[in-house]
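Structure tokens please, single chain.
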Amino acid sequence: MYHGLRETATFDAWIRSPALRNLQEFDLCSFERGFPSGPYRRSKPLPPVAAFCFSETLYVATIGGCEFPDITAQAIHFPKFKKLELDLVSISESSLCTMIAGCLALECLLVAHSDGFHCVQINSISLRSICVKGDLPRGRVSFRELIIENTPCLERLLQFGSYDTHISVISTPKLGTLGCLSSGTRLALDLTVIQSSMFMKGLRVDSLMSPVRTIKILAVDIHALSLDVVIDLLKCFPCLERLYIESGGPGKSNLWRQKRRGFTSSFHIRPKKTSWQYYRGIKSHVDFATFFVENARLLELMTIQVSKDDYHEEFFAEHHKKLRLDSRASRGARFRFTTDEPHRCVSMIWI
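Here you go.
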């Protein structure tokens, strides 16, 4: 539903239509948001009636390109809400926290490309999934900090965007999926601190008081591919089953056979599936990949994304040898090369 009507009274009459009684899903966006290729314009104020008329029946709502006046946002109370998506909205910090607290059954929350607040503090016994996304135009009051406390049902925490974000997580006993840790992220997960900034050389684990054993799925974005960083993350999340890596840089020296001999002999490397974007075939990338090939005994599938220029049989055959796939630690492991070029997805799987 586009909120592009000039007259609020007309919109109110339309939305009060008997045909919309008992509405369970609601998607409201400004007219500008309906055309993402056009220039971003100022958010339209949310019509007051839109915030209240479905409060007893609504389960899912997506709101985009709208401005939440404080008097409207702070009065919202949706007892049956399961999923809330806010995209390109403008809302104050206190109003956003009040809105979330007023959704007593909320399970899934997405906040994307929105402004008007620096910090979001969440305390919810029902939330299962939280996702926050950037970036924002310069000059706006933008999201920088996420504080999650007492969320006993939270299973997935995702953040995307290159802005500088601090995330603090306390008491999430069911948290199993985490990502995407990247440049500018500072994550405090109970007593474990992982951070990176423009002044650091990539991600690093600053404090590891106790391993976080609930995390099974992890996604990271490491510009300069570093095996040392990934090994620290494996120590931090020792029960990891799926690892997704994005790296666009050349990579550091990833020699490991002498340096990590004690680690590989004593640590159980658990990931069953790994996915890596982008593999360039240079020595640091080869060394990084062979660490998993020769030491991940539970590995079932390694997906390696390459550029379209390297997407050919000669490259695959050459790196079958360089990656020592015949010496893999997991005899049942499969290795798959892919590319992001349209209509060319999977080339060859070695078993």
